[in-house]
Design brief:
By secondary structure, this protein is α/β, with parallel strands linked by helices. The chain has two domains: about 200 residues, inorganic pyrophosphatase (n-terminal core) (Alpha-Beta Complex), CATH 3.90.1640; about 100 residues, Roll (Diaminopimelate Epimerase, Chain A, domain 1), CATH 3.10.310. Helices cover about 45% and strands about 15% of the residues. It contains 13 helices and eleven strands. The strands form two sheets. A six-stranded mixed β-sheet has the order 6-7-8-9-11-10, with helices on both faces. The protein has a five-stranded parallel β-sheet with strand order 2-1-3-4-5, sandwiched between helices. Helix 4 packs antiparallel against helix 5, helix 5 packs across helix 7 and helix 7 packs across helix 8. The longest helix has 18 residues. The termini are far apart.
Amino acid sequence: MKLDQLEGKGLIIHHWDADGISSTVLLLRKLDKNNIANTTPTLGNYYLTEEEITRCRGYDFIIILDMSLPMENIVKLKTQTKEIIIFDHHLGKIIPNVFHYNPIIKGEDPNRYPSTSWIINEYIKNPVNLYAVLGVVGDHEEKIKDNKLIWNHINTFSKENNLSFNDLLKMVYLLDSNYKLGDKTAVEETPWELLEIESPEEILENERWNDNLKLLEEEIESQISQPLEIKNGIIIKKMNTPYNIISTVTRKIAWSNGKPTVVVNTGFFKDSDQLYVRTTDKDMKPLIEKGKNLGFKCGGKKEVLGAIIPKDKTDLFLSDVISYLKS
């Protein structure tokens, strides 16, 4: 697939986090951005609604970034466009009749492909750059330092550009602030804003994103400072917040305690709950597949599961999660 040979109008569907946004910036720089639009699913959904699929009509090609959308979504989109291109690093299945570039589902080492931004950057043969790096840091934070192959590249890039790791982390948090506040429009505007930015300092000093971050940091600190329930070596936390901070809360709790962590948020969706799991050594793929078979919207990676579950099914699936982590 030669991206620079794509013709006509294109649509990028991307994840709402720093990796999805950074991946979008990398492609907008490669493609004719005057003929490209972008969108993200309803924040918190790992799928497209029927209405969202309908709004994807009228494009000659669709590029999906950093999202393992359900097969049925892809099949419907394929009826509306000439070509579908997927770049991703999440667990899933190879989707036929589309250009699906995901080394992880073909058995490659996940440590070699730590983010979609890294995959895209290598695919289009770019040197290591800020957006390739921000996607990786966004998905792994401090843990990326344990990945010596990738960390050496990031460390070299940081030194050459006079950036500390804390600078990179803060840029990630700033980019993520829009989705965590539930501002879908701001998420979709961010890649275009980044195209106009000429230096990392412009990201670090963005007043609106810094205001967002202050509000979020207060809420995250409030959540992680509360007493934790631990059963059979598994941390279980329930919270009720209107902010989309479940992945951040789970990551911070899991990494600071060194234990598998399960977090449920009852406050983001009206009729469903968010459930997020981060493990230390268990492969979450079987549980992701079980959730999908039960009809839940599930996704993730080897060490991570994210799910949206009807409120009356949450306790049952939570029990399944705990049993699996204990086994």
